[in-house]
Amino acid sequence: MYNIRLSERVPEPMPATPVTTVAAHYYAAWKYGAAGLHEGFNDLADRFPERTPLMGYYDEENPEVCDWEIKWAVEHGISCFIYCWYRKPENFGKPVTPGDLRCAHGIHEALFNASFGKYMKFAVMYEASPRWCGTDDADLIANLMPFWTDNYFTRENYLTFDNKPVLFIYNQKRLTADVWREPEAQKRAFDRCREYARKAGFDGMIFACCGHTRGREAYEDIIARGYDFRFGYNSGYVPEAHAPGEFPPEEDVASAQLAILDRELKLDPRRHVATASCFYDVTPRTTERWKKLGYGFDRAYDWHLSPDGFRKVIRGMKERIETLPEDAWAKRIFMIDNWNEWDEGHFVAPSHQFGFRYLQAVREELTLRDNLPDYRTPRDQGFGGYNKSWRTPDFGDFCKKRSGGFGAS
Fold this sequence. Notes:
This protein is of the alpha/beta class. The protein contains eleven helices and twelve strands.
């Protein structure tokens, strides 16, 4: 039976048991008007219908949407979402509220009100990029730490290791250039945060740095600055330039991702964490509007991995991690790029282009495969109506426009 609602709520997840903490980066920009830089699903509706989520276009602030995402994630071994966390520039030096954030709905409206939040760990990745708000010694302790602690760290499902909340930081370059030029100054600031966390009942804090430079000096620098480990928002693979619409051979892409991991683990086997990337296709972000905003997205550096190629990368990374010392951070957390970068072009969330195939690769390589995932779509089970805002109003309209079937190919 299809399109008949048999229950009043989203079916309960049947989680797979992951072999480690599997964390997917999460870009919460899919509430109408929230992103600011782009028009969300409205930018994709006409030219990129294959990038339609399997549930159709959705209002991301809806907790029921989050329930479906949690269900699909945990049934395939993803046990944590790392939310990009943006603070509005005018909030610098002031107490923080959810209204002072960009794209905060993903956490505060959706996750915190979802029925299945207990199944999903979460963490925040502080975006210190030039377009967003920086910090300094006083602001970090007086404003950021109280907000993070009260709203996130003290929740039961916030990501912790050894009773220490994990804070991910993107774009360390800005903090180095604008805030803490001397490593010792940044370490002192982080140590103050650790002490703040202890007073809140934790045993300290863990700081993770998104890779910003290469070579051995990069690891020496992050150690001196007080970071615990280093990660990538993606695998780090950058291909040779090619004609737009052409892509490097899949074997080259997979080999390059594994070679980069080999290089980083050789430099520091304990502090580098693996990130497996599915593909990178920025075509929707190469418009004149993006250029006017100062973003240099270039299709000449796009690349693709099929779900089977993605599976090989995950397997190769897992094999390398198994040889590491027991105290290596890579044995405690494995990262997936990305859950829902629909327009920037890297997503493992169920889509009409790929179905569940990227998630199936995660489940088969990084879990005990001790569950039976539910592959019925919300529409199959009588759920839907999640799009109240976007220009394409209903999943049925998408079906009318699209020729052919929707199966993963």
